[in-house]
Amino acid sequence: MAQQTILQKLEILADAAKYDASCASSGTAKKNSLGSSKGIGSTEGMGICHAYAPDGRCISLLKLLLTNHCIFDCHYCVNRKSSNTPRARFTPQEVVDLTLNFYRRNYIEGLFLSSGIIKTSNHTMEQMVEVARILREEHDFRGYIHLKTIPEADPQLVHQAGLYADRVSINVELPTDSGLTRLAPDKDARQIEGAMKGVKSSIVEATDARKRFKHAPRFAPAGQSTQMIVGADAATDADIVGKASRLYDGYSLRRVYYSAFSPIPDASAVLPLKRPPLIREHRLYQSDWLMRFYGYKAGEVMQATGADGNLPLDIDPKLAWALKFRGEFPLDVNRAPKDRLLRVPGLGVKAVNQILVARRYKTLRLEDVGKLTVSIAKVRPFICTPDWRPTQLTDRADLRALLAPKEEQLELFAA
């Protein structure tokens, strides 16, 4: 076989990394090379994978696999052992050179590195840690590094990864243990969560040490994240929301990412023939937002699901919950507390905060609320002001149909 060029390897391994959604770089400590005679890189500003932080910053990352060779045979993975796919492998130095060259050309601000399992989990983890070590120690790289760690690897290797990386992540892969056993027979749910527990402990210890000792080493300052595949097994949205909530509570995760299952070449017969609707992935992200920023408990989000345990696709989960619990509405925007206003469909966190500030100085009318939201029509059935009361609107049988987004056929050649 002819030896592959760097460009050929990059084409294969960057494409193979596209299935991993967990590459956002929000939450990292700010670092740059100012004041350093040899440092290179930064985690700030704008810099071929783009991730967006919650504050709107665009983060450009070189996102690739160290190798797509793998000794595991996970049914849903295009790089599984039995898959007939072109294979490639980088050396740690090649990944370092690519990262630095892309950075110097202002293409990227950091590196997202994952890998298939080659030889053993420990060998692969050692190679990934070596990439981060060379970047940090030999090149004083100050940019963002996210390492996808391997739960089967020695805990000490995972710990070393956290000392070099801004964020580490360990994929739980599937929402249920039975789904993982069926579709990823080489993986163990207890082992995965055990590795996540170890990372959490290291983060807590490092944070505590930094409070007492100024120069104590950082450990994954941007925390840890994970990813679940949606639609590869029979797990419902209620199962997924429940699993995400347990992970957030148990391991202090920064993010749980959801990735809609995508059919792969030469797929196993146990996999579905069609991918789930992408809007399902979007609804799960919305439900995740409700738990993280709107004060909803996992059980409340589950109440928004239908009889099949899945969130409705035609309306967002916040509206679905409000329609099921219409007795909670309407709310007086001039008197209701923040936690209740956050339940009003159409009012986001920013709008609610603006309402709380504005009503200290004046009595808000419907027109005032309308200036703070994209669609006052969505808000009106659930609020009241001195000049507006929804009367029977809140209880209308066809309220869902009135508020659901209208389906529209887009024109291919519209001006």
TrEMBL record:
The record's annotation in InterPro entries points to: Aldolase_TIM, DNA_rSAM_put, Elp3/MiaA/NifB-like_rSAM, Endo/Exo/Phosphatase_dom_1, rSAM, rSAM_sf, RuvA_2-like
What Gene3D superfamilies does this protein map onto? Aldolase class I (3.20.20.70)
- Which cofactors go with this protein? [4Fe-4S] cluster
Record bears the keyword S-adenosyl-L-methionine: yes
Q: Which residues form the Elp3/MiaA/NifB-like radical SAM core domain?
A: 60-287
Q: Which GO terms describe its molecular function?
A: catalytic activity; iron-sulfur cluster binding; metal ion binding
| Protein's name in the database | Elp3/MiaA/NifB-like radical SAM core domain-containing protein
Q: Which UniProt keywords apply?
A: Iron, Iron-sulfur, Metal-binding, S-adenosyl-L-methionine
